[in-house]
Amino acid sequence: MSTETLEKTEGGAQSAEGASPYITATFRIRRFNPEISADAIWEDFQIEIDPKERVLDALHKIKWELDGTLTFRRSCAHGICGSDAMRINGRNRLACKTLIKDINPEKPITVEAIKGLTVLKDLVVDMEPFFQAYRDVMPFLVTTGNEPTRERLQSAEDRERFDDTTKCILCAACTSSCPVFWNDGQYFGPAAIVNAHRFIFDSRDEAGEQRLEILNDKDGVWRCRTTFNCTDACPRGIEVTKAIQEVKRALITRRY
Ligand code: SF4
Ligand code: FES
């Protein structure tokens, strides 16, 4: 385990007006580079940072000022693109939505890749199995008949039926927090079911039966053990377990 320290920046200097907002925080990051070693190691980085900043800011500081080889995904930096889900202090979160002050910076903050998907390098995992499950549930509107000459109307009540599951940003925090998925990557996983739910309960869609049959598979909804990890992990506050339960009920009653 190596420790690297960033010297205080001008922002970290004690100002005459008052105490510096900066603290020294230790980020303990799980590093993996298959070109160097088959084993992952924990590496500590100490940085001066304002605790009101986010874990993503800390990762940028480490990458840009201490070790340019640190590898992670991010894009929007505002909780929209879903690319920076990672395990922070043992819990799946978006690095761009996690404030350092909220995760006890008095102790080393652990950061590692999400579980259940193959780690390619440092915090980057192979998302392909996750997106394959997403594609498998047909996450698009299916209709038959002639193209309408105007928009397809829907009542506010019908729209409300699947409002929660439209919020998914495909970050994989739910699927990679699911013990069933850890043990068997064949399971569709919560995110795919959430996205199936979004169309199954859409009154304009005509492929609900098809999607239900796909999820009736041995790797489908029945694998869910209702541990609620997915609901706890979702950064969008989606009631993931509830959505899975609704799909199970629709499979039994064939009413949706
Ligand atoms: S349901 Fe929530 S946790 Fe799962 S992929 Fe969508 S946004 Fe991420
Ligand atoms: S970087 Fe886009 S959600 Fe965090």
TrEMBL record:
Main enzyme class: oxidoreductase
Domain named 4Fe-4S ferredoxin-type: residues: 158-180
Entry's EC annotation: 1.3.5.1
Domain 2Fe-2S ferredoxin-type, chain residue ranges per copy: 32-117
Keyword hit for 4Fe-4S: yes
Keyword Iron-sulfur among UniProt keywords: yes
Cofactor annotation remark: Binds 1 [2Fe-2S] cluster.
Name of this chain's protein: Fumarate reductase iron-sulfur subunit
